[in-house]
Amino acid sequence: EYKILSTRVRNVERALETLDPVEREIIQLKYLAKQKYTDIFIYLEMGLAKDSYYEKKKSALSKLARVLGIG
Q1: Spacing of C-alpha 1 from chain mean position
Q2: How many other C-beta atoms lie within 10 A of the C-beta of residue 4?
Q3: Are 24 and 60 in contact (CB under 8 A)?
Q4: Is there a smaller number of Cβ atoms within 10 Å at the N or the C end of the chain?
């Protein structure tokens, strides 16, 4: 079981590397940080316009799904 989890973690790490820095930061803050942040907090903190934030978030999730074979 450890080997399976280890492989999954490596796959997610590799998938994150395919994202641009802004996409990666959004995903890390929204889904991977110990504290969960709201979308509004993230886009204000990052200095992004609301529309730009949601476009980047959608793009990042699509890329991750494709790379991980789940979308």
Answers
A1: 25
A2: 8
A3: yes
A4: N
Contacts of 25 (CB under 8 A, 6+ apart): 46
Q: What angle do CA 25, 31, 32 make, to 5 degrees?
A: 75
Report the amino acid identity of residue 20: D
Q: At what angle do helices 50-68 and 39-46 cross, to 10 degrees?
A: 110
CB 62 within 8 A of CB 10: no
pLDDT of residue 6: 86
pTM of this structure:
0.86
C-alpha dihedral, 49 to 50 to 51 to 54, nearest 10°:
120
Tokens for 8? Answer: 């999954």
Which residues of the chain carry a pLDDT beneath 70?
A: 71
